[in-house]
């Protein structure tokens, strides 16, 4: 596909089953309509470099043709070979390209990019990749999966793997994006379950389960109910990679105790899926009860944080709803499912205390929007000045959403 290329993918909220999903238990997640990542691929200033411009994490890096020439492409483009273990030769070859990057945010984003780039289109030079996200990064809302999906889709197109139909992404193409974005997630956090990239690829909501043979089973939930919910970002930084590794350690130390907890979380997701398929006044309290139990089990795994407990304690003491951390925890976000009778005044008060006293950020966003998408080069070219201005450092989340949010603007996205 010719340049420019523009891709997008949503963030997600895990309703039930974070962490246990990594250990092959069922889990439920929904895409978040208004929190998305956008990737623009354009010609670089010179024809012999590859440039990353990721302003959200302060990364602007160029690799010269000479540096890139030391890495050879893996011989076959078969995702399954990278599934269990990332290719050790490719990893070793990428190390010198990554050594000047600062901190884990930049390192992991660049590693994910380079791994997909060399696996899917490693000889192409003279390209610049610019990423902007309206989703908070490292907050439990799946920004790592949404950037991985944007990269897998754009690089898949650049490498000629995904150009079968100009007017739609076929099921096979979506499966390709899902597989390669899982590999991108592996670069970012080691042992992902695959639920986040599945939701970011296919959209809507999924009941997901990883299988022992590394395959995944995901059932689309098309009519996901709009549960009245507040998402609160504590802005406390944390890393999914570290938290997932911590749970793995705990299992190794306390297998008899922790395995039943993970099983229980899987049961919560299965039971939750049945309730969500038929949610009404009669079972709403059951849903809230499952949410409360799931949070308690996550606390027992050691992945909560005092900052998340503030949200839970406030929600409980105001009797406004039921709170559970979402994503990897350790900071980041919690969701509060509002009681049916929560008054608008109380909801406002709850949000205002969190925002003003604790400096948290709250969101009320719809769940279950579209998955990954791309824009045709003709559509991009017609709107290039506007689109390029959005990818500059100073553009805001609302600028991005006002102009690019699929389904909400006049620009045509292909799904
Ligand atoms: N907009 C973005 N720009 C650059 N890197 C990003 C962006 N969004 C996500 N990332 C990458 O994803 C990582 C965060 O992933 P993770 O710890 O799994 O948190 P989460 O997925 O909950 O946001 C960051 O370290 C960064 O490498
Ligand atoms: C903890 C986990 O279940 C979810 C992580 O989500 P996030 O990166 O915190 O958005 C890990 C996974 O399922 O890959
Ligand atoms: Mg993540």
Automatic annotation (TrEMBL):
Domain of life of the organism encoding this protein: Eukaryota
Catalytic activity: (R)-mevalonate + ATP = (R)-5-phosphomevalonate + ADP + H(+)
Main location, first listed in the record: cytoplasm
This protein's record includes keyword Nucleotide-binding: yes
GO cellular component, one term: cytosol
Pathway: Isoprenoid biosynthesis; isopentenyl diphosphate biosynthesis via mevalonate pathway; isopentenyl diphosphate from (R)-mevalonate: step 1/3
GO biological process, one term: isopentenyl diphosphate biosynthetic process, mevalonate pathway
Domain GHMP kinase N-terminal intervals: 120-203
EC number(s) reported in the record: 2.7.1.36
GHMP kinase C-terminal domain segment(s): 276-348
Location in the cell: Cytoplasm
Keywords: ATP-binding, Cytoplasm, Kinase, Lipid biosynthesis, Lipid metabolism, Magnesium, Metal-binding, Nucleotide-binding, Steroid biosynthesis, Steroid metabolism, Sterol biosynthesis, Sterol metabolism, Transferase
Function per UniProt: Mevalonate kinase; part of the second module of ergosterol biosynthesis pathway that includes the middle steps of the pathway. The second module is carried out in the vacuole and involves the formation of farnesyl diphosphate, which is also an important intermediate in the biosynthesis of ubiquinone, dolichol, heme and prenylated proteins.
Family: Belongs to the GHMP kinase family. Mevalonate kinase subfamily.
Protein name per UniProt: Mevalonate kinase
């Amino acid at each position: 596909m010719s340049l420019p290329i523009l891709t997008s993918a949503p963030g997600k909220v895990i309703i039930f089953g974070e962490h246990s999903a990594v250990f092959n238990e069922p889990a439920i997640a929904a895409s978040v309509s208004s929190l998305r990542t956008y990737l623009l691929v354009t010609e670089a200033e010179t024809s012999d470099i590859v440039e990353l411009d990721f302003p959200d994490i302060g990364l602007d890096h160029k690799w010269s043709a000479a540096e890139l020439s030391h890495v050879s492409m893996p011989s076959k483009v078969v995702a399954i070979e990278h599934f269990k273990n990332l290719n050790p030769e490719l990893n070793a070859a990428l190390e010198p390209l990554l050594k000047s990057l600062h901190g884990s945010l930049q390192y992991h984003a660049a590693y994910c990019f380079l791994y997909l780039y060399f696996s899917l289109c490693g000889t192409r030079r003279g390209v610049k990749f610019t990423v902007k996200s309206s989703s908070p990064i490292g907050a439990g809302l799946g920004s790592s999966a949404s950037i991985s999906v944007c990269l897998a889709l754009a690089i898949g197109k650049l490498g000629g793997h995904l150009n079968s139909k100009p007017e739609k992404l076929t099921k096979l193409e979506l499966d390709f994006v899902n597989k390669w974005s899982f590999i991108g997630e592996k670069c970012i956090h080691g042992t992902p379950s695959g639920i986040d990239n599945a939701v970011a690829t296919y959209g809507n909501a999924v009941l997901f389960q990883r299988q022992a043979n590394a395959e995944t089973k995901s059932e689309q939930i098309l009519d996901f109910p709009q549960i009245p919910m507040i998402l609160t970002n504590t802005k406390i930084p944390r890393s999914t990679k570290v938290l997932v590794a911590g749970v793995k350690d705990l299992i190794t130390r306390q297998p008899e105790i922790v395995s039943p907890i993970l099983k229980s979380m899987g049961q919560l997701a299965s039971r939750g899926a049945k309730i969500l398929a038929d949610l009404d006044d009669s079972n709403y309290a059951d849903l809230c009860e499952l949410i409360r139990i799931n949070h308690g089990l996550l606390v027992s795994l050691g992945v909560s944080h005092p900052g998340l407990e503030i949200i839970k304690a406030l929600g409980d003491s105001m009797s406004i709803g039921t709170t559970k951390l979402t994503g990897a925890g350790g900071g980041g976000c919690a969701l509060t499912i509002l009681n049916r009778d929560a008054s608008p005044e109380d909801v406002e008060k709850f949000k205002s205390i969190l925002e003003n006293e604790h400096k948290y950020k709250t969101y009320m966003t719809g769940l279950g929007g579209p998955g990954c998408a791309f824009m045709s080069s003709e559509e991009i070219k017609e709107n290039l000045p506007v689109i390029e201005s959005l990818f500059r450092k100073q553009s805001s989340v609302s600028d991005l959403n006002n102009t690019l949010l699929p389904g909400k603007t006049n620009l045509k996205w292909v799904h």
